Amino acid sequence: MPAILTPNETERKRRLDDGDSGSGRRPPVDRKPTGGGGDGDNWDNRPAGSRGPREVLTRFRMGIFFALAGDLMFFAVIVCAFFVRQTSGHIDAHNDYVVDWVPIAIPRILWYNTIALLLSSVTMELARRPMFREIDAMEEWLGLGKPSTKRAMPWLVATLLFGMVFVVGQLVAWQQLSQTHHSFNSNPSSKFFYLITGIHGAHLVVGIAALGAALAGLYAVRKLETRQIIVDCTAWYWHSMGVFWIFLFGLLVFAQ
């Protein structure tokens, strides 16, 4: 005849099986790590306050976004000053309103610079995407080398070279303007030309330094997530400099 447990016996058996000593409290169930491969990196077992790789990447992207938003406001102020100065003038001896803005001819090399910068944005994206390719990341996690780094490295070098070509081209454009007697103080239009191209060039030099740091990071940094963040943030900054230049170059060519 099968054993029959009374309600009290059933409750007592449940407490004993769950590790309850009868004090009225049940201990929390020990949740086993799932999907962590035994390394303790699962969501359930993370230390309080820690961040996952995706959260860290999002945080860095937001930092780049706010920094670039400040740059956007800065360039917007310059553009507003450009249009205000373009329409302003003075009263001459004959009581006539004279506008002293004289448009300058844009050096042709700036068109080639623009093409180089657009190509550099393409190569930068080709360098960024392999860093997040799932199959390459999986191979690295399994200890099969650094396939994502090997694929990204040539494109990152190409981006660096295109960026250096752009900066050298800007210097050549300044030299050509100087030879045609368009110095910084010769005319308000030339002053804004040097100001706009110089400030953007300084930002691009910062981008070139970031590219150099990214290249060094691909060699020196062992953690894949850190290398992904370095390349990704550099790419966002570089793409933004390309967008800024397209707008500023259109301003210099068509708005004078």
What is the count of structural domains? Answer: 1
The fold-level CATH name is Four Helix Bundle (Hemerythrin (Met), subunit A)
Low-confidence stretches: 1-7, 13-45
Query: Rough shape?
Result: elongated
Q: Output the strand order for the largest sheet.
A: 1-2
Description of the molecule:
The protein has 256 residues and is an all-alpha fold. It has a single domain, classed as Cytochrome c oxidase, subunit III, four-helix bundle (Four Helix Bundle (Hemerythrin (Met), subunit A), Up-down Bundle). Helix content is 67%, strand content 2%. Strands 1-2 form a two-stranded antiparallel sheet. The protein is elongated, with a radius of gyration of 31 Å. It starts with 6 loop residues before the first helix and ends with a helix. The N terminus is likely disordered.
Task: List its traits.
two-stranded antiparallel sheet, mainly alpha, disordered N terminus, elongated, 7 helices, 256 residues, 2 strands, Four Helix Bundle (Hemerythrin (Met), subunit A)
